[in-house]
Amino acid sequence: MSHKIKTICCIGAGYVGGPTMAVIAKKCPHIQVMVVDINHERISRWNDHNLCNLPIYEPGLKEIIEKCRGKNLHFSTDIESNIAAADMIFISVNTPTKVKGLGAGHAIDLKWIDASARQIAKYAKGYTIIVEKSTLPVKTAETIKQILESSHQNMVIKEESKKAFSVLSNPEFLAEGSAINDLENPDRVLIGGNDNNAIASLTEIYSNWVNREKIITTDLWSSELSKLIANAFLAQRISSINSISALCESTGADINNVALAIGSDKRIGKYFLQSGPGFGGSCFRKDILNLVYICKHYGLKEVAAYWQQVIDINNWQQKRISNIIIEKLFGTISGKKIGILGFSFKANTNDTRDSPSIHICKELIEEGGCLAIYDPKVIPEQIEIDLSIKQTKSKKDSEGSWYFSRSVLDSAKDADALLIITEWDEFKKLNWEEISNAMRPPSWLFDTRGITNIYEARKNGINTWRVGN
Ligand code: UDX
Ligand code: ADP
Prior knowledge:
Low-confidence stretches: none
Strand order of the largest sheet: 3-2-1-4-5-6
CATH topology of the largest domain: Rossmann fold
Oligomer: single chain
Bound molecules: uridine-5'-diphosphate-xylopyranose, adenosine-5'-diphosphate
């Protein structure tokens, strides 16, 4: 028998919690959805009247917020009472790679999960279903269960405030930039757990818009592991195609033709074969590092080394690109201006976590380049944080600096090179005549995404390099 869910609380109003809860609220008008966060600034931006100030940019998100906010979708910093009122609690907090201590550089830092579990143990009332949404190491649900159980064992519980919990794993498969579409039309929904009633309650929520055949239920650990493996397989495809992009450049083949030819085989499939500057984002690196850590923990040295190679190729691809730029610009970029087009880790998001731009820009700054960085959605304050260098005041400035550009043309002005790192639509159709006139000859275009018309650029006197060509 499923437990009827009337109120949901989501802990964490980030890239996962925000869009996921917005879609649940839209599809389930009979459920009250409360999204809570310790970050006051983030919550006030979710509540901002001006929808352009939402903390996350995602196509289609603003429209849902406009429709549901204040009706059955609420954003709040009042964690205590929203946990107490919830029938079901989603945990969508950050789970970055540990930077210090045991497993640093590989294992996931569970500090935020731990804190959330303790908050739930303290404030929840009655029977509550806990759903882990964040990507987590296998067996984290077990840890959450233990925290929940041990904390209320230590309390003197009055009969009327008795607590009981079921823990489910319900990994998120949304990709940023298409999150709303992914949530509304998922390939599958995965629910892991040992309590059939709790699974039925969560299945009922998704059934409001997802065909039941697409809802897969498994045991807890298989669900947790599947999320890691899905990301590892996706990242592996990118490293595979990127490794071949280098071979194409050396041999004269074209990576786009190779991708088309191999992707037409149904067994391989055409998706995720776009070579580029290496994968970024909050998930791939973190999840593979975690997978490597888990394999080592279980003594599976060869398996760990196999997956580590996916990350090594990714790092190599980014380094390879900055080296090519330096080499083409006569071996030095000291004091040369390079226009950077795109700073987010992919198009249609303002997220910069582990963006290839960060790694490539840092290398170029280190080599003395003066970067003019333009991105349609990323703000300069974020770039400052990511590069750990303040932007220079004067555009004429010197070696090893960067400043924020307001347009492509501003980035191109007097530049020796333009470097496309993010595949924003805006960069697909550029006016190469205008850009060429603005640049300093001999000028270069480096297209790491293979999205521009390099022949047009060449016709206008710009030297070109395109990944895998
Ligand atoms: C990923 C998974 O796709 C998603 O299922 C999971 O829930 C979270 O992690 P996300 O990181 O948002 O989603 O974006 P994704 O579209 O997977 O792209 C990741 C990185 O790979 C980006 O830097 C992207 O530019 C790059 N990429 C993707 C390529 O270089 N080539 C491709 O063909 C596809
Ligand atoms: P993701 O991409 O996984 O959604 P984000 O970093 O975008 O990650 O969002 C996670 C959010 O979780 C952040 O806004 C952070 O402030 C919030 N958070 C972390 N720990 C807690 C907690 N104990 N209680 C409430 N919110 C939390």
